[in-house]
Write a structure and sequence with these properties.
With 223 residues, this protein is α+β, with helices and mostly antiparallel strands. The protein is built from 5 helices and 11 strands, in the order αββααββββαββββαβ. Strands 5, 6, 7, 8, 9, 10 and 11 form a 7-stranded antiparallel sheet that branches. A two-stranded antiparallel sheet has the order 1-2.
Length: 223
């Protein structure tokens, strides 16, 4: 047998003077009426983050990045190898490129650069001038936001450490001018940590090559 129900009037304590602004929704649960604001209304009423709060959040993130600084250790095999004279080969990981690799290794091989090609684009360039151009391009190019730091420099060799903007990952990039009359530069770009680089090393080498081409350089083959 159905029982008649009566609607009770809302309590004066729950009345709202401006319901259209707050957009209160009335709910009935166990005979009690309560009010609930929508998420959009809560966001509008929440005060915006103050300058101090923003600074604190930024400081916290910077502190975490400083704690988790994955720079790694410089590999002991970097530099010009003795037998035969060349830069080091790449490990089995997919985060390295080297002109010393076999041309059939598409995952690791990269062609050398010619800093004074004989195609009518300019006069013969000295090794000293080529090194100066290389340094200029290295210092001014920051692919993917990596910061370059000259770690070692000799007349025929240059090593640059590229540090990522987040968490401080470091990649080692080497350039070597082999002896002889041919105006060739060999190079190697490798990440210190991990197994994948998501194309970072290849993108870096390509960006450097494109900037060097503006100075008359050329790649020895397609890449």
């Amino acid at each position: 047998m159905a029982m008649a129900t009566t609607r009770s009037s809302p309590s004066p304590l729950l009345s709202v003077s401006r319901p259209s602004r707050l957009q209160l929704r009335l709910h009935r649960r166990r005979g009690l009426i309560f009010c609930q604001r929508s998420p959009a209304e809560e966001d509008r009423e929440r005060p915006p983050a103050g300058r101090r709060e923003i600074i604190l959040r930024t400081s916290e993130f910077a502190a975490l990045a400083a704690i988790f600084h994955f720079s790694g250790t410089k590999p002991s095999y970097l530099g010009v190898q003795k037998s035969p004279p060349s830069l080091a080969l790449c490990p089995a990981t997919n985060n390295c490129l080297s002109t010393s690799e076999d041309v059939g290794d598409s995952s690791h091989f990269a062609p050398p650069w010619n800093y004074s090609p004989e195609d009518g684009r300019g006069k013969t360039k000295s090794r000293e001038a080529a090194m100066a151009e290389l340094l200029e391009v290295v210092k001014s190019s920051k692919p993917d936001g990596f910061t370059p730091r000259i770690a070692e420099k000799r007349d025929d060799y240059l090593r640059v450490e590229y540090e990522s903007p987040l968490l401080g990952f470091v990649d080692d990039v080497e350039f070597w001018f082999p002896p002889g009359k041919k105006p060739i530069v060999n190079y190697r770009s490798a990440s210190r940590l991990g197994f994948l680089d998501f194309g970072v090393n290849k993108k870096r080498i390509k960006a450097l090559r494109l900037n060097l081409e503006k100075k008359g350089w050329a790649s020895e083959s397609s890449f």
